[in-house]
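Page 37, continued from 36.
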């Protein structure tokens, strides 16, 4: 499955062995592999502390990943031009991220 996720254009979002270990040694995300096909929506379910928010924070480049590979629209995560490509992706976090001065579209 890993080879399919990283090489196929069918998977605009593909994560392989995504891992996050904090400086204090806490393992927050461990070898998470998943893909999102074009037109699909991804949601993560799990108990508090399962790594859901950390996973999305890494995909949104708010936090660095310790190891693994993430490809967005066929590009390595670190190579994505957010100005050019960012409007093609959206994230609805668990908190109210809509700032009063932005429209919903601008916020996404």
């Amino acid at each position: 499955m890993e080879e399919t996720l990283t090489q196929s254009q069918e998977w605009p979002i593909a994560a392989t062995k995504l891992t996050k270990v904090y400086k204090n040694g806490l393992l927050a995300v461990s070898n998470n592999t998943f893909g999102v096909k074009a037109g699909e929506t991804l949601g993560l379910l799990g108990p508090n502390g399962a790594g859901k928010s950390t996973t999305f924070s890494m995909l949104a480049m708010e936090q660095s990943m310790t190891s693994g590979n993430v490809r967005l629209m066929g590009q390595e995560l670190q190579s994505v031009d957010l100005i050019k490509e960012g409007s093609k992706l959206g994230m609805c976090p668990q908190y109210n991220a809509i700032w009063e001065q932005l429209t919903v579209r601008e916020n996404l």
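Strands lie at 13-21, 27-36, 67-72, 75-76. Flag for discussion at group meeting. The CA atoms of residues 15 and 70 lie 4 Å apart.
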